[in-house]
Amino acid sequence: MSETPLPVTRILVADDDRDVLAALGLLLRGEGYEVERATSPAGVLGALETVDVDAALLDLNYARDTTSGREGIELVARIRELDPTLPVIVMTAWSSIEGAVAAMRHGARDYVEKPWDNARLLAILRSQVELSRALRQGRRLEVENRLLRRDGPTRLIAESAAMRPVLELIAQVGPSEANVLVTGEHGTGKELVARILHAASPRAESALVTVNVGGLSEGVFESELFGHERGAFTGAHGERIGRFELAHGGTLFLDEIANVPLAQQARLLRVLQTGEFERVGSSRTRRVSARVISASNADLRAEVGAGRFREDLLFRINTVEIRLPPLRDRREDLPLLAAGFLERHAQRYGKRLAGFDPEAMRLLLDHPWPGNVRELDHAVERAVLLAREEFVGPGDLGLRGPEAPGGGPAALESLTLEEVERELIRRALRRHNGNVSEAAKTLGLSRSALYRRLDHHGL
User: Fold this and answer.
1) Are 71 and 50 in contact (CB under 8 A)?
2) What's the DSSP call for residue 7?
3) Distance between CA 60 and CA 225 in Å, rounded?
4) How far is CA 112 from CA 37, 119, 138, 303, in A?
5) Measured over all CA atoms, what is the biggest interatomic distance in the chain, rounded to whole angstroms?
6) 187 pLDDT higher than 70
7) 62 pairs with which residues across the strands?
8) Closest by Cα among 144, 204, 202 to 171
9) Are strands 286-287 and 276-277 parallel, antiparallel or unpaired?
10) How large is the angle between the packed helices 417-431 and 447-457, nearest 10 degrees?
11) pTM of the full predicted structure?
12) Which of 79, 83, 312, 405 is deepest in the core (most CB within 10 A)?
């Protein structure tokens, strides 16, 4: 009996430089791909009408406009209209990297810089072809469910209209190698999104390494991220491997990146641009390959304007931005989220609970949730511990709104010491538009101390 032949994998390659086409043809055919070539946007569209391809590898600049990348961006958008499942990877020189970012926002899945790295280019193509075939076989929902809604630490509960664009963007950029910036208020789920992006990527079998860079003091920043050699400074009794090395081959999640001091941003930029760094106390240059996902609750463009954040660093981490809405803008998800947290914590603490009684659910829906999903999680965990009946009641939740019955701020005299601390932290964050560094100064705390309190209070 004859074996079923393996499917032919065909890549459409487009560039107006025939030497580039020849080099890519040799590389791809050597890996077993069939190659369809085009030298213009019209040639690309013509090829797509007559030939089935599994991925498109496109230059951004053609004869009409050789510098801005506008032709390539328009071509990506046109391909997206014709076939939204076809993965498009764009090629660009470093000097026109802005065009690659724009192309990603118009539907490209990833980009490579010229001169390209063969291994990286082939890895991107392999992962995108696999995803393309899954989508073309009508399994898009299966792919999304596996990546976005599966049980366990990477389960994302989201059915609201406000979250649909987020789910679509995660599904689109997750399988790529692109650096991603996740933004949103405290407690909206930025680290969860980072775990989902990692699980969807070609690096999923390697480590996801998380570091709260905003909570690192300047004295330990370089040692934590890049490592140090024995004797590099007082107390360095042995060598230390930094977070970048630990994430080699995998993903590095840099949380609260807005709070990295300016003095350290240049070192961070260098390793993101070149993949090179030195441990503290060493002159040996090391290389690392890690996808970087960053997160911030601050408006980084405003931070750039204020001179507190480097524009070139923002550009490097922000190939694609995923903005998470606050819980108050996705209240349709609240009953689902609360039920999910109730199930998880009831199992954890060995309690049998049937759900929330109507008054408790009304309280959940009416609460402002300044701490977002994280605050909801903490409130439900507390309720599970305190509940004595089959259903969670309003008293089990321990919620006290920030407004007094008369409409003004809650009187501090009526609050417990812990509630006072929580309320003062909320006010400081509101006053400084979520800037943790400025709020910490107002409260007389270090940034790391304030981060510990934010986590403790579920803010």
Assistant:
1) no
2) P
3) 35
4) 18, 11, 28, 28
5) 84
6) yes
7) 65
8) 144
9) antiparallel
10) 120
11) 0.61
12) 79
